[in-house]
Amino acid sequence: xxxxxxxxxxxxxxxxxxxxxxxxxxxxxxxxxxxxxxxxxxxxxxxxxxxxxxxxxxxxxxxxxxxxxxxxxxxxxxxxxxxxxxxxxxxxxxxxxxxxxxxxxxxxxxxxxxxxxxxxxxxxxxxxxxxxxxxxxxxxxxxxxxxxxxxxxxxxxxxxxxxxxxxxxxxxxxxxxxxxxxxxxxxxxxxxxxxxxxxxxxxxxxxxxxxxxxxxxxxxxx
Length: 222
Prior knowledge:
Strand content: over 45%
CATH topology of the largest domain: Immunoglobulin-like
Low-confidence stretches: 188-195, 197-222
């Protein structure tokens, strides 16, 4: 009688895998990229005997780039634009092996312009206790932008972040003979200090003064 259920023997084969850090690193200079800047990407092999003499390639968002600079491990963006933003990495091919760097994000930022400042004041005279609406606008700069309004240079009145527009509206109360100043800060993800710019403007739109002066008058009680 033939055995209809033959024994099946299964053998397990163990394979040991060693995971190590890639010897290839990609460095970007400068760390903060602005519109019009020259950006340099350097592909380095930390173990010369492993990948120090291999062929280097650069990629942006998985697309192979064609470097036009020397040495062969350098890729240069001569005048960066927003179109150059993306994820970059490099690869070194040597001895039938491929060594990849980690992805590095390049975000080209448009510098913040000096904010303009305007108010809803119809004339040049206001009174103590009057309410005033002041608008601060940045014509250019990568969003989000942090707009701040100061009174007498140092006293911060309002701090507003604009995400989808370039204008922040502030409501203030006239306390005395006041002048106001606007600051614009670009909100950055990196740890680099944010760039700032400011403008001081007069209500009379004088080309010689740059202070928003409010000639506040005490109200006389009857």
